[in-house]
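U., I forgot to send this yesterday:
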Amino acid sequence: MRRLKAMEFSKSKLAAIIVIISLFSVFMIPSSAVPEGDVDGPPVVFYKEHSWHHDCSNTTGFEMNNSWDVSWNHGWEPISGPMFSDGEKISLFTGPHDGVEYMWYGPIYMYKLPHNFTLGNLISFGIDFEVDNSEGMSRECNVYVHLVDSSYRPLLAFRWTDNWWDDFFIRYSANFWTSTQTRITYTSIPIYNHTYRSQSSITFDDELGLRFSIPTMEDHNFYSPADDDLLRNISHIILMYGGHSSEIPTRTYLHSVSLQYELPITFISATTNESSPNIPMEDLQLQQFLTWSVSFVSAMVIIVLSSLIVKHPRDSK
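Result:
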C-alpha cells in the first residue's frame, strides 16, 4: 500500500512538473514568432513571391525625368514629349522634332516600383509590345524598357529599333549592365514587318543565371551575374522612346509590363524589436497566430496526458 501511494505521489509530482513546463513554454514564445536561428548565427529568413503588373490602360505612375543620365547611349538627346494611353496600351511615340537634328531624341519616363528587390530575388521581367511600321519608308524608332537600380544606373532592358539600311526591318535586343556598367547585349536577326506584336522576357535562376526570350531568340542563355550584381536593388522602370534626326518615329506601343520577384518575410530582431523594411505586416501576424496556435494545442495535449498519468489506479484486491 505504501508503495502504491509512493507511485501515485511520484506520478503527481511528474504531472505537475510537466504542466508547469508546458505552461511556461506557452508564455515564453518569442514575440516575433519567427525562427531566428542560433544565438551566434544569422536569423532564419523566409521568402514570399510577389507579382507586379501594369496593364498600360493608363499612364498613372509614369513621370517625365529628362535629367536621367543617358551618357551610356551615345547621341541620345532627351526632349519633352507626350505619353498617351487609349485605355488598352501606352503609345511610345513622339512627333517630329523641330530644331537641331539629333542622332536620337525622345522623352524619358520613370516609374517607381512598389518594392525594392535585389537582382538575386528577381524571378521574371516581361513585356508585351507592338510595332506599327507600315506608315512610311523613312520612319525610324529607338525604344528601351529598363529596370534600373536604386542608384539609377541601368541594369536590364529590352530594346527595339529600326535598321538604318532598310526601313521595314526591326531588330530586338536584351541588355544587361554589370555593376561596373559594362554592357552585355544579345540582338535578334532583322525582322521584316509592317505590324508586329510579341512578348519578351528575362528570367533569373540561381543555377541557370539570367536567360531571355526575344523575337527569333527563345530561352537563350544571357549572363551569370557576379555577387555584387546580385545585390543591386531594383527600384524603377524607365521608358525611353524616340526617333532619329528630324524624321517622324515609327509608331510603337506597350501593352503590359510585368514583374515577379521574392521578398524576405519580416522577422523582428531580438535586440532592436524592429521589423525588416518592405514586408507586409499581415505576413508577420499570420505567422504569429499559427505559431501560438500550434504551441497552445501542444500544451493542451501535454496537460491531457498529464491528467491520465495522475489518474488513480483501481485498488488491487
